[in-house]
Design a protein that fits this description.
single chain, alpha+beta, 3-stranded antiparallel β-sheet, rod-shaped, 10 strands, 7 helices, Tetrahydropterin Synthase, Chain A
Length: 288
């Protein structure tokens, strides 16, 4: 793999002044050679002027958070990271690589989760180039490579987790966002490391069931919520009935046999667990 090599060019302002001075000398020499009819002087001044003109192509400006990758006759010649006005070999090809932090949002992908349910998922990826040589030479188009590999990582992640957790120990896309984001970050970074790219953040930005099963899954979620609510109601009602029987027995308010106690428990549970207000029937006679 081609790794980045730091390089620093010659100071651009100083080199510019020297080239301007040399150009002035070559022009003066040319005029003098023409006046004297000196063929060798004429040829020498033209060669000097041509060489100096070629040298002007070596100037380059490096902006903050930017790198210039230098290629000399097909070989990597280093990267200039320090911002400023520089001069390098005029025959080098200078390619600009941005080192700024960038982000993009993947398209809404339709994939199957861990339970084979079709879902729609999208993610936001924040990234930056940390090795300009790898980004330019190890992959064909590093920006397109980042987009394609990020979507592939999102697909892999979605198939690893279910949309909803069916028990407390299971991690899901909808309920464990921090853990899922950490896993997604590692998945994307593993794929983009060879391109000289560092991923600073990766999070799910869109998550939904596919339209064809959204209605059925909504009914399933509602049923799960109703069951959970009923469980809490029954659990609380049993505790209230148990507490009521213990208080009646401790205070000697009434003594019930097992049959009457079962009837009382049944009536209390019906009253406490009913969705509607109960209408009691008052018995004015003996309970026996």
């Amino acid at each position: 793999m081609i790794k980045e090599t730091a390089r620093r060019g010659a100071p651009g302002l100083v080199t510019l002044l020297l080239l301007l001075a040399g150009t002035g000398v070559s022009v003066a020499w040319f005029i003098r050679a023409v006046g004297e009819g000196n063929t060798f002087g004429l040829a020498g001044s033209m060669i000097l002027f041509t060489g100096l003109s070629i040298c002007f192509a070596g100037f380059t400006i490096v902006n903050p958070n930017e790198a210039r990758v230098l290629i000399l006759f097909g070989r990597y010649a280093g990267s200039i990271r320090e911002d400023g006005f520089w001069w390098v070999n005029p025959f080098t090809i200078k390619k600009r690589v941005s080192l700024r932090v960038r982000n993009f949002e993947t398209s809404k992908l339709k994939v199957n989760d861990h339970h084979s349910n079709p879902i729609e998922i999208g993610a936001v990826v924040v990234w930056r180039v940390v090795d300009s040589a790898e980004a330019l030479f190890e992959v064909d188009d590093y920006e397109n490579y980042v987009h394609v590999q990020s979507e592939a990582a999102v697909r892999t992640l979605a198939s690893r987790y279910p949309y909803d957790a069916h028990n407390t120990e299971e991690m899901a896309l909808s309920s464990h966002q921090t853990e899922v984001a950490r896993d997604l970050l590692g998945e994307v970074q593993e794929r983009l490391g060879k391109a000289g790219v560092q991923v600073t953040e990766a999070r799910i930005s869109h998550l939904a069931y596919a339209p064809e099963i959204a209605s059925a899954m909504l009914q399933r979620q509602q049923a799960s919520a109703i069951i959970a609510a009923r469980f809490k109601i029954v659990e609380g009602a049993v505790g209230m009935v148990e507490n009521a029987l213990e208080m009646l027995s401790a205070r000697n308010v009434i003594h019930l046999d097992e049959e009457r106690k079962a009837t009382m428990v049944s009536n209390l549970l019906v009253v406490l667990c009913s969705e509607r207000g109960s209408t009691p029937v008052i018995n004015a006679g003996s309970i026996y």
